[in-house]
Amino acid sequence: MTVDLEKILRPIETPLLKFPAKYMTLANGQEMVIRQVEREDIPDILPHVEPLIHCERDFYNVVAARLYAELLAYYSYRVQDEYVLVAQIDGELAAIVNGRIVSPEIGMSYHTFSLRRGLRVGAHAFATKMEYHMDILKQKEVLIVAESGIGFRRWMIEYKLEKRFDIPHELGGCPSWSLTKELFERARANLVVGRRPVPEHLMAKAKAGILAPSDPPKAPEDLLAATRSMLDSTGTSLIEMKKRLGEK
């Protein structure tokens, strides 16, 4: 008897409502489109994530490595019910957000990956991801963690997330935080922006191709700047700097 191993390895996907694309005007006047992408788009996204695996700044290296694996798993049918949204400015990739559906009522936020700094691009993309969970998928709760201090301020503090420390998050087993429907509604007026439908010329530009970010995050020239603190014992850049200076 022939066994189709691929059918066994692939999870059975749950039919999910698609995210309706939206757009917003950023602080500098540029317009940003946020839309859902499919598996066939992933090979066009991966080359823009991979370089940041080597960027030691605000834990971009950790986030990029994990996101790269998550995108590959989605592309290869090795994760259950994942979705991927991208933000684009003039076709350029500005942010990637992803997550998955745990149950009809509970969502799991994976990553918010900003490739354009200084315009709250990541914050807008995260809010849009939560909008997808709450408004489109009608979920009651999203489990969230942060890998950097910036993420903690943007998610845990701005949204006043609730502790769910009894629930290990899928990102490393860290204690989870929760965005409930009630918390989302309180934050909506201040943090959730955007309009629909997306004008045809903006959507056409976005779908024409995912272009490389023109100014992606880079490691600081001063290695000590990456650690942000002399007391940060986890900062490998501090270790490297000491090596260059001949210190132990």
Structure description:
With 248 residues, this protein is of the alpha+beta class. The protein has one domain: Aminopeptidase. It has helices at residues 5-9, 42-49, 60-75, 121-136, 149-157, 181-191, 200-208, 223-227, 236-244, and strands at residues 22-25, 31-37, 82-89, 92-101, 106-114, 141-144, 162-168, 175-180. An eight-stranded mixed β-sheet has the order 1-2-3-4-5-6-8-7, sandwiched between helices. Helix 2 (42-49) runs antiparallel to helix 3 and helix 4 (121-136) packs across helix 6 (181-191). It is globular, with a radius of gyration of 19 Å. 32% of the residues are buried. The model has no long low-confidence stretch (mean pLDDT 91).
Share of helical residues: 25-40%
The number of helices is: 9
User: What is the H level of CATH, i.e. the homologous superfamily?
Assistant: Gcn5-related N-acetyltransferase (GNAT)
- The run of helices and strands is HEEHHEEEHEHEEHHHH
Number of domains: 1
Q: What number is the mean pLDDT?
A: 91
In CATH, the topology is named Aminopeptidase
Query: In angstroms, what is the radius of gyration?
Result: 19 Å
Q: If classified by CATH, what would the architecture be?
A: 3-Layer(aba) Sandwich
What's the arrangement of strands in the largest beta sheet?
1-2-3-4-5-6-8-7
Could you tell me the number of beta strands? 8
Biggest β-sheet description: 8 strands, mixed
The top level CATH class name: Alpha Beta
User: Strand content of the residues, in percent?
Assistant: 15-25%
Structural class by helix and strand composition = alpha+beta
Low-confidence stretches: none
What separation lies between the terminal Cα atoms? 63 Å
Outline, from the CA principal axes?
Answer: globular
